[in-house]
Design brief:
Helix content: 25-40%
Distance between the termini: 53 Å
Strand order of the largest sheet: 1-2
Oligomer: single chain
Order of helices and strands: EHEH
Strand content: 5-15%
Number of helices: 2
Largest sheet: 2 strands, parallel
């Protein structure tokens, strides 16, 4: 049996979700201490801003 231990995350990357599917059992930490600049409190919003930046550099 394969077990994964993951920290909590606000909007985790794709790798986080692949572990949910890959492992037989997954535990998510519930007593995690808050740390700045981790996947737990960060997300990337792509779309409008990315296209605006690429147009402004032309």
């Amino acid at each position: 049996m394969r077990i994964a231990y993951l920290s909590s995350a606000y909007l985790p990357p794709v790798e986080y979700y692949t572990k949910l599917l890959k492992y037989d059992k997954v535990y998510v930490e519930q007593y995690d201490h808050y740390m700045k600049q981790t996947y737990r409190n960060r997300c990337t919003i792509a779309g409008l801003m990315v296209s605006w930046l690429s147009r402004s550099q032309r």
